[in-house]
Amino acid sequence: MINHARTLLLNSDGATRPNPSYFLEEYVDPKFSALQLPDYLARARASLFDPKSADEAYKNFVMRACMSILHSTEFAEYVYALDPRVTYLNRPSVAMTPEEAVTTPLNDLAKTGRAEMVGSGSQVPQRIMWDWDVEVLSGGPVAYSVQVTLRTPYQRQVYSVNFDDGHSDLVPLPGQTQLFFRFQDAISVGMSWEASLFSMQKLNLDAIMQGFESSGSAADQLFGNQEPYKTFGELWRKHVYLNYKMSGYLLAVIYRMEEVRVNGQ
Q: Which of 15, 34, 46, 264 is most buried, by CB atoms within 10 Å?
């Protein structure tokens, strides 16, 4: 399976992955189905991200960091042992990617005017990508009803908006408190816009390791006296370098997940 180790660690249905141009998206076999993990393994993996609150961009960001760590030592041989075909090693650095807010017209009516994002994005844990649809429902010539839909997680609000002197009131964007949408030059019923925000996160590897350490019995069950888990446990418990220590944890999670995939347990 191409990107075998990453696919297991991500644990997401291949058939429903974002398109290839999505932020840090890598190939996942369309036939792969997310595994139902035993409790100890789910708890061991939970320190990577919250599957309920993390967006797909943040999950990909975590995967990028994890796979970079795994390929930074000689223990990358365990990744290749599952399948040597990987696609993610030549990605450019995302460390300096700036925050970016963009408005895009979705129909011809919207192209008769302009729109802008005003303010700054608020950092939300484990969330990188934000997308809203903004549609003018009714009104004129000054007061309008504007519907704003946050795509994920779905949230919809309708606002009363005035348009005067070449621009509109600031339109709130659900999920953000300091970032707003504003119509420029023209507004008319039926206009449809997309507003999007890219807000880069900082990844705290120490917090991931501490989260695993606090998982209690999950750590004991993850490792063992049989190979390769004995080696993985030695790396986690005894190595002083973060990339080796974390490789022990990640490889143990991946190989336990492989057991679940193969044996259904």
A: 46
